[in-house]
Structure formats: structure tokens, C-alpha cells
Amino acid sequence: MLQNNINKKEIRGHLKYERPFKRKERVANEIQHILGKIQTQYIDLSDLGFITFSRVTLSPDLKYAKVFFSVFNKKISINKIQTEMDNRAKSFRKYLGQELQIKFIPELKFFYDETVAYTQKLDTIFQKLERDD
Question: How far is it, in rounded angstroms, from Cα 107 to Cα 79?
Fold first, then answer.
């Protein structure tokens, strides 16, 4: 059963088993999952809008994390939301330390992910084009 998630690679006649992701990617995925859990259980972000964490990238030493977020139904400007998120980074890190089982808990820096807004803009353009045809 475990072998379904592990890739096999043959090197010089020997089978070598590889994990599907690098450790950095696995830890980043786990951080993203835990941050979503923290948001729903411990830290209220409803005063900013509906915030989702879209992606997390880690430095090679796993000590710094860039957390990308998107906002739906924003209640204040994006710059103020980003400032508020950075102000709450210490609280997020505290709860992250309780859930994440690694030696160093990464410092969190929040960034607005513009891809969601960009895709929404493209969708409206395509819908407009379809209506014009």
C-alpha cells in the first residue's frame, strides 16, 4: 500500500524509491494546511474579508516562509490587509509551532497573491466577449 505513493527509479540495476516531493515542498504544504486550520480555530480574520492561503514557499534552510494569500469580499484596502497580516504573523507562528513538528518554526511574511484577481479579471473579459458575439 505504501508503494503507491512512492516513485520507483532504477539506477544501475537497483531500485531506488523516491518520495513524491522534496522535503521543502512537503513542509510548505503542511504549513499551508496548518495556517488554514489556525485561521478557522484561533485567529479571526473576518474583519479583513474572506482570506485564503493560496501558496507557501520556504527558504532552503526552512527558516523563512512566504505565505501568499487571496482576499474575497475585502473590507479594507489590500495594503492595509497585508499590514494587518504581517502584524498577526507572530500569533500565526505561535500556533504553527504547536502543530508543526520541525526543529525551527519559520518566520512568516505575508504577500498578496494577485493571481486570483487576475483570473477573475480575465473571466470577466471572456464573459464580455461571449456576450458581444
Answer: 20
